[in-house]
Design a protein that fits this description.
2 domains, single chain, 213 residues
Length: 213
C-alpha cells in the first residue's frame, strides 16, 4: 500500500524530538525509508543539524565491538594461577623434601651438597620469576606476554640443567642409572608444559585481545 506522505508528516509532527531521532537515526530496518526521511525533515524544521547526528550514528556503527575473549579468564586465568599460586605451592615443599632426603648422603658424596644447593638456588630464582611474570599477566602490564615467554624459556633452560645436575654429583653408577627414567619423564613433562603455554601465548585470541599483541 502506498504511503500517504502528508498523513505521515502530520503524524510525525506530533512526536517529540527523542522519538523522531529514534526513527531517523536508529539504523534499524523496522521503519520504511519514507518514514525515516520524513522524520529527518521534521527534525530539520525544528532546527536540528542532522548531519552531525548522521556522523555520530555512523561512528557508532563502525566502532569495533568489544572482543569476546578480552580479559583474564579461561585458560589465561589458569596460566596466571599456575605462575603465581601453584608454582610456589609446589616448589617450596618439593625443595624441602629433596633437601631433607639428600642431606643424609652429604657426608658420603660431597658433590651432592653442591648440586643440591645449586638446584635450590635455581628453583627459587625461577619461582620468583614465575610470580613476577604471572603478576604481570594478572594486571595486564605492558610487555607482560613477552615477560611470560621469557619465563617459559628460562623454565625450559632450567629443565635442561636439572637433567644434567644429578650426573655431576659423584653418585655411584647404579644410582645414576636408576635415575635416568625419572629424569627423562620429568624433562619430557617440562618440554610439554613449555610447548603448550608458549604456543598459547603466541596464538590465543584472548591473549591477543587482552594485551593487544
Amino acid at each position: 500500500m502506498p504511503i500517504d506522505i502528508d498523513q505521515l508528516r502530520n503524524r510525525l509532527s506530533n512526536l517529540n524530538d527523542d522519538e523522531l531521532r529514534k526513527i531517523a537515526f536508529a539504523n534499524s530496518h523496522q521503519y520504511y525509508p519514507d518514514t525515516v526521511e520524513v522524520a529527518r525533515e521534521e527534525l530539520i524544521k525544528r532546527g536540528y543539524d542532522i548531519r552531525q547526528e548522521e556522523n555520530e550514528a555512523a561512528d557508532t556503527s563502525l566502532a569495533p565491538a568489544e572482543p569476546r575473549y578480552k580479559g583474564v579468564g579461561g585458560w589465561l586465568m589458569l596460566l596466571c594461577l599456575g605462575l603465581t599460586v601453584f608454582t610456589p605451592l609446589l616448589t617450596i615443599p618439593l625443595l624441602a623434601m629433596g633437601f631433607s632426603e639428600s642431606s643424609k648422603y652429604f657426608n658420603l658424596f660431597p658433590g651432592l651438597l653442591v648440586i643440591t644447593v645449586t638446584n635450590t638456588v635455581l628453583c627459587l630464582g625461577l619461582m620468583a620469576f614465575s610470580i613476577y611474570a604471572g603478576t604481570g599477566l594478572w594486571s595486564i602490564r605492558p610487555g607482560a606476554v613477552q615477560m611470560a615467554k621469557r619465563y617459559l624459556l628460562c623454565f625450559l633452560g632450567y629443565k635442561a640443567i636439572a637433567a644434567i645436575l644429578p650426573f655431576m654429583a659423584g653418585l655411584p653408577s647404579a644410582a645414576t642409572k636408576a635415575m635416568i627414567g625419572t629424569i627423562a619423564m620429568d624433562t619430557l613433562r617440562g618440554v610439554i608444559y613449555f610447548a603448550v603455554w608458549y604456543s598459547y601465548l603466541s596464538m590465543s585470541k584472548r591473549v591477543i585481545a587482552t594485551y593487544h599483541c
